[in-house]
Amino acid sequence: MRASLLQIDVNDAETVDARRRRVAAxxxxxxxxxxxxxxxxxxxxxxxxxxxxxxxxxxxxPTYEVMAKAxxxxxxxxxxxxxxxxxxxxxxxxxxxxxxYNTSLVFSPSxxxxxxxxxxxxxxxDKGEAVLMGAGxxxxxxxxxxxxxxxATCYDLRFPELFRGLVDAGAETLVIPAGxxxxxxxxxxxxxxxxxxxxxxxxxxxxxxxxxxxxPQAGHSIVVxxxxxxxxxxxxxxxxxxxxxxxxxxxxxxxxxxxxxxxLLGLEAPRR
Length: 272
Description:
It contains 7 helices and 14 strands. The chain has helices spanning 16-28, 49-55, 62-74, 129-132, 160-168, 185-199, 248-256; strands at 2-7, 35-37, 77-86, 100-107, 113-118, 140-143, 148-151, 173-177, 202-206, 211-212, 215-216, 222-224, 230-233, 239-244. Strand 1, helix 1 (16-28) and strand 2 (35-37) form a beta-alpha-beta unit. The strands form 3 sheets. It has a 6-stranded mixed β-sheet with strand order 5-4-3-2-1-14. A 6-stranded mixed β-sheet has the order 6-7-8-9-12-13, with helices on one face. A two-stranded antiparallel ribbon has the order 10-11. It has a single domain (2-259), classed as Carbon-nitrogen hydrolase (Nitrilase/N-carbamoyl-D-aminoacid amidohydrolase). The model has no long low-confidence stretch (mean pLDDT 96). Belongs to the carbon-nitrogen hydrolase superfamily. NIT1/NIT2 family. It holds the Pfam family CN_hydrolase.
């Protein structure tokens, strides 16, 4: 199976529309791949908090349309990264006044929407994404012909219980788009490898390059196998990381070293 991770340079000088067109062209160039992955919030930048509301779009908005067409043209499964989604209002009033979500879109090779995932863990603590966007509540997996993909986004990478849930739902390949800051790049690499080892799964983690909203991005998109070995890693700049991997290695690893069978669930806290 061949995957292409598109480590997009997100910078303030390029308009959102121009970036959509440019990235769509890059997706079309990956016609020989089975799976293409884009980063988190690549239209606006993950730290461009002031742009979230202004650039928010409905699920089937401009990015949806452009990426669905690109997936179909290339004939690939496309994890189109995430967008600032403006959901419909619960009250049923005019469009455009519902909550915001950090929402990932996954398209089939025919351009159909295969899945949408609203990011569960929002970064920022008491500011930024954590207060501007709502939290998702559902784990999402997508069945490809070769593997079952578990979908997560950026800050989710710090929460191992989410990935255990994805594995319990059948995930064998964990795909993680991100807008990870350069100042914590060592955490990015460490956590990607940890999630692969503890879940005996492939990790495909695709970040952004460049600087947006004054925050230098880590880059260094990475592909890790179920034993924690790094199969490929990008540099700091814009780059297309292409890697071939064998999905059957997940089942073989779990059979050879059946650590997941020894999990103990439902442990009670110690009494004081």
